[in-house]
Amino acid sequence: MTLKIVLDAGAAVAPYEQLRTQISEQARSGALPVGYKLPTVRGLAEDLGLAANTVAKAYRALEADGVIETRGRNGTFVAAAGDAAERQAASAAAAYAEQARRLGLTRAAALSAVEGALRATYGE
Fold it and tell me: Which of 45, 60, 74, 85 is the most exposed place for a label (fewest CB within 10 A)?
């Protein structure tokens, strides 16, 4: 198993976001198993022709999302991303439901708002 990243220089999406998305998708799909050791920031930056700060920004975002974890000098590894992602999504959903209730939205209106946001985010 190896990390496979393909960046599109002509894309409207920033390189760090392309990198973050691809690593996240590979971790969540199992293409990168839990415990897989990722390349160093400098090493991956060199391989991809990116600035080290670009890769570091993607790694920080992935760590904040619970997809990867840094173990000091031992390196950066794929974390149990599915569990972390599901916990974060459930927490965000609960917070949204509470906010919608406080705003006086009906269940249908709250669901409609979520569906609209998901359509906009996923491009459906």
Answer: 74
